């Protein structure tokens, strides 16, 4: 017997390397955190709860994940760090025991018009290699199947310098790409309505253009009137054919305007480059409105919308081209790839099968690879990002998820829970920010932040097990077992919105009457066709106000006061009270502190090191010139007003010397959607997802519309806030509005007057109406997945 096996039964002392089993955070002060200290167990599933704005994202994303990523970046050479985004160290005293963090957030995927589900997940890359190896006829390398690579060729003389002097050789080259030459690989062609672009009765000097940013005194207007190609006082309708061609289509030409050298280009190619290169979802609202008015998009007649050249579409495997494969529902494509057996490409087929199976497993089997990435909802985008991590061999990493159940039907939440547990069981630390009780229930460890939001939050109210949270007296603990009851009586419709023969995306010739004057909830599993029915079939325009999940556009200079238009009446009130110009009371205009340009902080770039932000000494972070702060309204200067919370400001502008009805009206709406705690000057970049959506809702409530369409308004809302949202929806309906809500939350379903349930499955298994009626009838029938889950929820 050797010595190693004869040491008796005494277990060895644990190795010192195994003692690092906690992530320790001490003194975290990012955003609204108040010296937060927590110890999180590694290789466990920790869920962070608390009301929207309580500091969950500040702790998980802005502190733990941000520091982990910053430290990984520091392991690269200074040369590489120069190309990476600079990240400053979070405001925290101690961060110990960190592991590599992989962030899977809700940010919408790049809304580039060339980005599709296939390109974003590398599935297209694998398919292109597969077709270049097995496709018949063989047409070239993988790039011959890429709609982002154009076919080019050329020949000419090249001069080669060598030891024997210069020699001239004839060379030629050609690259075979897969891009459709007619639509440049976008799958669609554009047609411009010229009457919506300019008024042909006006001359260039009179400002004929109706394009945003092209006014007569604007830079573009001055270029067109000062380029010298046209008589700027002649109405456009009197232009010769040549002049009209130059105005609309002229190729880039060097010119000089007002002493500045510029390149002149026709109006239409200029708009195609500046506006139409972006996906519609990524455009600013006023530009989107112009594009919708002036441009019609039709599928490219050459490629049929597939984006691919004729050669790329001609090469097939078992009768299927790469265009056919990308248009298939992914669950069908997975079966087709599973039937391919070719030893020469076995590793490639294995990886492709795994990627496609991951789509199906995560509940996205209803998508197709040619679906534009910008059209995915927040929940779909997050799950698409998860796909690359599901088969990862990495262990001992920290996965950070931001509400992974967003956009999921109760039926799908169990599947998501299983995926989170699988990641944990491989030996990883899983940190999840979440509001859904079904996901909180599977946590090994819970951290509840609060007690309130904004300045009333930022402290740890509870840390421990789910059972401990249930017994605690925190807001989350008290509301964890909340169940909304079915309404005893429902409202009677005042009319109906008729939809006939809807076929958008996966809808199968749907006929439905959406009742007006009531609260209607459209529900069904993810991918069943809810958004296609509501957004794709209800004509937007007069009387319809649609509030989607799209992110708010805004820099760190934007804040709730600027976004909602609240700052305009405030500036005018200050100007009137002090007899000066309104522009003085804007930190982005004349009133800005000259030292920090109205930012309140000064950013010092340190090359590859983190950028340092220091409070401006001149204005002490107030953002305004000292002379501007001497002007007062109701005893307060402009910086003090911007530091007020919505609730304080509502009182301030409601009575007395500072009474401003226009401002008070906007503040009323902000308080109405539950944003009474946010400060008027808080940068938009610091707002949580739930806060941003409610800010949007408050802004749209001022629009004169008879029908409101809300897309999952419970996104990012705490259980306690859902009640307030239901009250707001009731107030909208009681004031004579029709409210249509796309929603999975059972509390909203139970509160509805009418439910339209789509399904029974996702993709081509969905797209049909499986139930129409009251929530009570749905619970009684239990005929659909939604009915079963709602019955379980209300205890029916």
Give your account of this protein's structure.
This protein is α/β, with parallel strands linked by helices and 796 residues long. It is built from 28 helices and 27 strands. The strands form 9 sheets. Strands 5-14-15-3-16-17 form a 6-stranded mixed beta sheet, with helices on both faces. A hairpin with a 2-residue loop joins strand 12 (316-317) and strand 13 (320-321). Helix 4 runs antiparallel to helix 12, helix 22 runs antiparallel to helix 23 and helix 27 (775-781) crosses helix 28. It is globular and about 85 Å long. The N and C termini lie far apart (68 Å). Mean pLDDT is 87; it is low at 1-8.
| Weakly predicted, low-confidence segments | 1-8
* Spatial arrangement of strands, main beta sheet: 5-14-15-3-16-17
N-end to C-end Cα span:
68 Å
Helix/strand/pairing category:
alpha/beta
Which value, in Å, is the CA radius of gyration? 30 Å
Average pLDDT confidence is 87
How many strands in all? 27
Largest sheet: 6 strands, mixed
Strand portion? 15-25%
Classify the helix fraction into a percent range. 25-40%
The DSSP helix count reads: 28
Q: Based on Cα principal axes, name the global outline.
A: globular
């Amino acid at each position: 017997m050797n010595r190693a096996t004869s040491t008796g039964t005494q277990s060895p002392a644990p190795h010192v390397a195994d003692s690092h089993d906690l992530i320790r955070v001490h003194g975290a002060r990012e955003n609204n955190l108040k010296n937060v200290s927590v110890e999180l167990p590694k290789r466990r599933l920790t869920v962070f709860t608390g009301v929207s704005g309580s500091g969950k994202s500040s702790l998980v994303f802005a502190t733990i994940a941000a520091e982990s990523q910053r430290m990984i970046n520091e392991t690269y050479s200074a040369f590489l760090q120069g190309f990476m985004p600079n990240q400053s160290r979070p405001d925290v005293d101690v961060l110990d025991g960190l592991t590599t963090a992989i962030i899977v957030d809700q940010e919408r995927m790049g809304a580039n018009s060339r980005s599709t589900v296939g390109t974003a997940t590398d599935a297209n890359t694998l398919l292109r290699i597969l077709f270049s190896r097995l496709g018949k006829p063989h047409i070239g390398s993988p790039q011959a199947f890429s709609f982002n690579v154009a076919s080019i060729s050329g020949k000419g003389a090249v001069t080669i310098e060598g030891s024997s002097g210069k020699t001239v050789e004839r060379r030629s080259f050609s690259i075979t790409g897969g891009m459709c030459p007619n639509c440049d690989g976008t799958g669609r062609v554009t047609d411009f309505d010229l009457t919506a672009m300019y008024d042909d009765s006006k001359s260039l000097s009179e400002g004929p253009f109706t394009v945003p940013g092209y006014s007569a005194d604007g830079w573009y207007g001055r270029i067109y009137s000062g380029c010298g190609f046209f008589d700027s006082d002649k109405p456009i309708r009197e232009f010769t054919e040549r002049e009209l061609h130059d105005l609309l289509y002229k190729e880039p030409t060097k010119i000089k305007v007002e002493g500045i050298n510029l390149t002149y280009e026709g109006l239409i190619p200029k708009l195609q480059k500046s506006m139409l290169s972006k996906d519609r979802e990524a455009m600013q609202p006023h530009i989107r409105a112009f594009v919708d008015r002036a441009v019609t998009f039709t599928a490219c007649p050459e490629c049929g919308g597939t984006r691919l050249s004729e050669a790329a579409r001609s090469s097939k495997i078992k009768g299927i081209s790469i265009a056919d494969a990308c248009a298939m529902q992914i669950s069908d494509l997975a079966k087709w790839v599973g039937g391919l057996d070719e030893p020469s490409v076995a590793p490639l087929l294995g990886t492709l099968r795994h990627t496609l199976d991951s789509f199906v497993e995560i509940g996205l089997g209803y998508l197709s690879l040619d679906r534009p990435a910008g059209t995915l909802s927040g929940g779909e985008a997050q799950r698409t990002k998860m796909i690359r991590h599901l088969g990862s061999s990495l262990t001992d990493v920290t996965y950070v998820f931001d509400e992974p159940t967003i956009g999921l039907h109760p039926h799908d939440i169990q599947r998501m829970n299983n995926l989170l547990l699988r990641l944990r069981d491989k030996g990883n630390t899983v940190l999840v920010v979440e509001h859904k009780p079904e996901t909180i229930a599977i946590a090994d460890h819970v951290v509840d932040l609060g007690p309130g939001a904004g300045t009333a939050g930022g402290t740890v109210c509870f840390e421990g097990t789910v059972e401990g949270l249930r017994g605690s007296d925190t807001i989350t603990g008290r509301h964890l077992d909340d169940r909304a009851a079915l309404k005893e009586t429902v409202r009677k419709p005042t009319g109906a919105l008729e939809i006939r023969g809807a076929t958008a995306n996966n809808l199968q010739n749907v006929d439905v009457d959406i009742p007006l004057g009531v609260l209607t909830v459209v529900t069904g599993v993810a991918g069943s066709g809810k958004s296609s029915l509501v957004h794709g079939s209800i004509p937007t325009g007069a009387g319809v106000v649609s509030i989607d999940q799209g992110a708010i556009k805004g820099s760190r200079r934007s804040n709730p006061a600027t976004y909602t238009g609240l700052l305009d009446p405030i500036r005018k009130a200050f100007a009137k009270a002090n007899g000066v110009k309104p522009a003085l009371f804007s930190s982005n205009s004349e009133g800005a502190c000259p030292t920090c340009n109205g930012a309140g902080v000064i950013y010092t770039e340190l090359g590859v090191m983190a950028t340092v932000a220091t409070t401006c000494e001149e204005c002490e972070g107030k953002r305004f010139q000292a002379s501007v702060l001497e002007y007062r309204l109701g005893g307060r200067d402009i910086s003090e007003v911007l530091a007020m919370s919505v609730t304080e400001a509502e009182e301030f502008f409601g009575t007395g010397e500072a009474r401003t009805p226009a401002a008070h009206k906007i503040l009323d709406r902000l308080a109405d959607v539950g944003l009474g705690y946010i400060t008027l000057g808080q940068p938009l970049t610091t707002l949580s997802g739930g806060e941003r959506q409610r800010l949007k809702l408050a802004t749209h409530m001022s629009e004169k519309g008879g029908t409101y369409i809300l897309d999952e308004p419970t996104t990012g809302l705490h259980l306690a806030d859902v009640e307030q949202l239901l009250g707001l929806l009731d107030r909208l309906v009681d004031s004579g509005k029709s409210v249509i809500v796309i929603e999975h939350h059972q509390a909203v379903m139970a509160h509805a007057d009418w439910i339209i349930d789509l399904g029974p499955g996702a993709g081509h298994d969905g797209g049909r109406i499986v139930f129409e009626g009251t929530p009570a009838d749905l619970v009684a029938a239990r005929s659909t997945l939604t009915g079963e889950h709602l019955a379980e929820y209300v205890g029916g």
